[in-house]
Specification:
- By secondary structure, the protein is an alpha+beta fold.
- Helix content is about 45%, strand content about 15%.
- It has two domains: about 70 residues, Arc Repressor Mutant, subunit A; about 80 residues, Orthogonal Bundle (Arc Repressor Mutant, subunit A).
- The chain contains nine helices and five strands.
- The strands form two sheets. A three-stranded antiparallel β-sheet has the order 3-5-4. A two-stranded antiparallel ribbon has the order 1-2.
- Helix 1 crosses helix 3 and helix 5 packs across helix 7.
- It is globular and about 60 Å long.
- The N and C termini lie far apart (about 75 Å).
């Protein structure tokens, strides 16, 4: 029987995972398929070897730490080419309303639909439903206010899709506000 090569198994797990995979998920899968008991030290050693392997110019992909997990992504020098394919294939774009709703949820989570609608000034039922269907947001419980409305938060797919490890990596409003976005005169 061939020797159990933990690094290749870790590589296969990361490759086959649609979303980023955590070290704990890797350990669970390894321990379920091997006679040996693996721990974080084994996985981190394998991750280092995999990172080193894909850091060379021979590969168009690299191992990236995202959202407290690991995922293979295309290297930056190939983003423009891959982006063209994605634009061509993209038939499920988010509408302006859905993008506005997603931004509000990302910055104010957990948040109720009523709070979203108060910020946007329009009904957001459809946008929230589409974001739930695309799994970019998730239900995060119920508020402790009368009627116990549902709370919405961004999902781990949102973190993967936007390449974030933590929500504090979202651009701050002060970073994206420009002079042309202001109304009136700035009097100091």
């Amino acid at each position: 029987m061939p020797k159990f090569d933990v690094t290749r198994h870790v590589e296969a797990l990361i490759f086959s995972s649609v979303q980023s995979i955590t070290v704990q998920e890797i350990i669970l899968a390894l321990n379920a398929t091997s006679d040996h008991e693996y721990h974080e030290t084994h996985v981190f050693a394998s991750l280092d070897l995999i990172k080193e392997k894909y850091s060379h110019g021979d590969f168009a992909i690299e191992l990236v730490n995202l959202n407290s997990g690991y995922q293979f992504l295309t290297k930056k020098e190939y983003h423009a080419t891959v982006n063209q394919l994605q634009l061509h294939r993209s038939k499920k774009k988010l509408s302006q309303a859905a993008m506005e709703t997603l931004a509000i949820i990302a910055y104010r989570q957990p948040i109720t639909k009523l709070e979203i609608e108060q910020i946007r000034g329009v009904n957001s039922d459809y946008s929230v439903q589409r974001l739930l269907e695309k799994e970019l947001i998730s239900i995060d419980g119920k508020a402790e206010t009368p009627g116990r409305p549902i709370l919405y938060s961004t999902s781990s797919l949102f973190m993967d899709y936007f390449g974030l490890n933590h929500l504090n990596q979202l651009p701050q409003l002060k970073d994206i506000s420009r002079e042309e976005n202001t109304v009136g005169e700035n009097i100091e």
